[in-house]
Every structure is written in C-alpha cells, then in structure tokens.
Amino acid sequence: MPETAVLPAYDLAAARAGIPILATTIPMNNCSQAPQTIATRAAAERYLESWSTRAMDWDAWMAEVDAAKAEFARLINASPGEIAVFSSVSEATSAVASAIDFARGRTKVVVTEAEFPTIGHVWLAQRGRGAHVEWIPVCDGRIDEREYERVVDDRTAIVSATHGYFLNGFKQDLAHLAGAAHDRGALLYVDGYQTLGTVPIDVRTLGLDFLAAGNLKFLMGIPGIAFLYVRRDLAATLEPAVTGWFGRANPFDFAVKRLDWSASASRFDTGTPPIVNAYVARAGMRIINDIGVPAIRSWLEVLGQRLIDGGRARGLELLGTDDMTHKTATTAFVVGDSHLVESKMRERGVIASARGPVIRLSPHFYSSVEDVDTALDTLASLLAAQ
Length: 386
Hints:
By secondary structure, the chain is an alpha/beta fold. It is built from 13 helices and 13 strands.
C-alpha cells in the first residue's frame, strides 16, 4: 500500500467533507484556532434563528448551555454536575484561585514555566492573598517530572500544570502529576487547552481535582467559552470569591442579599453564560465525541511522527521532544521570524501558527498525510529561500 493511502480507523473523507475550507486551504493551526465546520455554523445559525423569531427564549438557551456542559462532561468521563462554564480559561483559573485559602499553612502554588502566560499571571496575582509561587523549570523545551517531587511539599496548596506545552507540544503525564500533588496533600489544577479533544483524558481514573479547557482549538469551537471540571466532593467544600448570580442555588430567585451556593460545580459559574458560544461549542465537541478521542489520538500519532521524520529529512530544526508518547498534536520548528513565515505560508495555502521563534504545525482528525507533507514542503521551501 503506498504511503499516501495511510488512513485512520474512521472515515477521513466524511470528516473532511464537513469542513468547507479544506477545498482551498490546509489548516495546520489547531493549536490556535479550529476551522469552521458545517455543524458548528449550523449551530450558530440555530441560535440566531431563535433570537430572530422568538426574541427571547431563555428556557431553550439555558437548556443549550446545560447540553454543552454535558457534552464536555462526556469528553472527560465526568458528570454534568461537575462542570462549570466561563468565557475563558483565564476566568476559570481566577475562580479556582479565589477559592483557595492561603491562610491555613499551605501558601505555596507550584506552577510550571510551560504554562500559557494567563495561568501564571492568575497565580502571581494571588500573592496579595498570601500565596507564594514556585516554578517548575522548562529545560530544552521539556519538563523533568522528577522536579515535582523536589518542589511540591507539605506547604503546597495547589499544583497548576499544563497538560500540553503551548510552544512546542510537550505533553506531561497527568497520572504522575496527580500522584505528586496528592501524595503531599495538595490539589491539582490542569490546563487541558492544548490536549483536550486529541488525547484521551478520564478525570475519574486520573483522580484530577480541576481541569479547564476552552473550545476554540482542538474542540472545534470559537472564542468566548470555556469549561471547568471540579471534582464533585471537592466542589462542595469551596466558595469562590470570583462569582456571580449563576453560582447561586437558584439564580432566578434574584436574592441580592443572599450568597448561597449551588450544590454542584455550577457554584463556580459567574454571570450570564455565553449563549451563542455554547451552541457552537456543543456542536464542535459532539464531532470529537462521535469520532472518539482514542481514534483521533491514534491518527495524530501517525501524523505527528510524520511531521518529526519529515521535518528532519527536510533539514528543519525541531524544538522539543521527538518522542510521540510525550507530545501533543503540535510540532514546532525553529524559523526565526515566525510571523513572517506564517504569513508567507498562508499565501501558499497553508495556515500555520507562529509563536516566538517557532512555527507550530498542528494537524487534527481531519488532516491527511498529504496535508502534512505539503505543509512541510511549504515550510522548507520558504526557509531555503531566506
């Protein structure tokens, strides 16, 4: 069988048929933004039709938010009552941070240098509440997992760790992180933005305390919505200071003087939820769930290895590990002026993602071997011409 006939376990042609931009362009930028699908566009139009014809339909709109929470829960093997909704992971992280009591002897927050800046900023902002932030270093684009045993101690309140490094796709072992945190009595907060939808995550098996992710990347959604998992028995013990009327036991009581708490993770909800975003998010996550994350991961391991091997064969400089067991769907190559290279690749029909000194190539379930090869050829050609 020729190499170009290598296919995933699911119907790749059917998956591609639902993404109109593939007719003219090769999106390899899922680490930044997913392409629009027929299903997600239809979901947005369904909200617009509701708004246009009914003017106000809060029962239906809130039902859609609940359905989106349920779809997210299905993705990570949680229950819908363990999911809160936000406008961004920044907001979700702030809500979690506001619920941590740093006045009871545990003042340390362990954060990795691989975090997306917003996560580090949120934890640094807690210093005024008594938090002490200590960093797990990044060396050669990777994190040495033994560092957690060195840094996490009995003074640690929470470990905040990205599952996948946004810059180069290095992936951490969540089971190891959970053990390192819980062995010292600390909580674990995971940013799953760069992995969810491409790497199987079972929050129950892993014993995670918190997991947050937005929808505009590998979950095939748009900006303006994110979800937070809070372990059920843990949620009941926390009272986030970042709150709003949807965090109440009954938001529609409109009781301005009563700060009661929802019995579920919705106590972490804040204000009016992002309704139209929830329509799109639900549709995008349904695509991922219907194909199945294990099948997607298997295909992305094939494409990821092809990126690594093909980049090496073309003389490209890889940033980070070449071990697919420790990689997300993203592969990064050092290019210098990455924004210029991104622009020139787009002119040639390939959408890549610039970050600092690298170009990130991030295929997804709909990507083909030919897409990967074309992206590598385009990048190599541009660099050779510099």
